[in-house]
Amino acid sequence: MLFLALLVVSAGLGGKNGFSFNVDDIFRAFDPDSYRSLSWAGLPALLVKACGTFLFVWVYIAVSIKRLHDRDKSGWWMVPFFAIPGLMSQFSDRLPDESYWVVAAGLIVFVLYVWGFIELAFLPGTRYPNRYGPNPLGKTHVRQGRDRGSRSARGWDQQSELDTVPHKAGPPAV
After folding, report:
1. Which residues form a coiled coil (predicted)?
2. How many domains does the chain have?
3. Is 156 part of a structural domain of the chain?
């Protein structure tokens, strides 16, 4: 709700150009050149944008790390999937144009970006409980044992979680 409120306020403070909340804004905080064009007149819009960017990045990183945990990977994988491509994008205009190492670094960053996108968006999570918790889908997976018949790796059982409450509309008995 707070993020939605910041979007509404940003529409009012944006003027003709407006502004948006995106991942690139977090990397502008590390760029000293982005501070040179700041003025006191744009301070309210800057504060709204800073709050909105913080909330956006917090949700983005939390969901991405939760997805990495579903894939049985550490949250530190966000460094090559998120931080390195973002920093390269922010500071790419300061690198020399015709250099083989810049082209190689750009290619490596592109591969990391695509790999992270495939890892987070397309590959399924583990079907078994991993070190970060159970399968979030909660399905029961049955595997055939060699000599013991079927074995069940049970997920969440909905029937054991139901709590029946009597339908009484009066006050509790004293």
Report:
1. none
2. 1
3. no
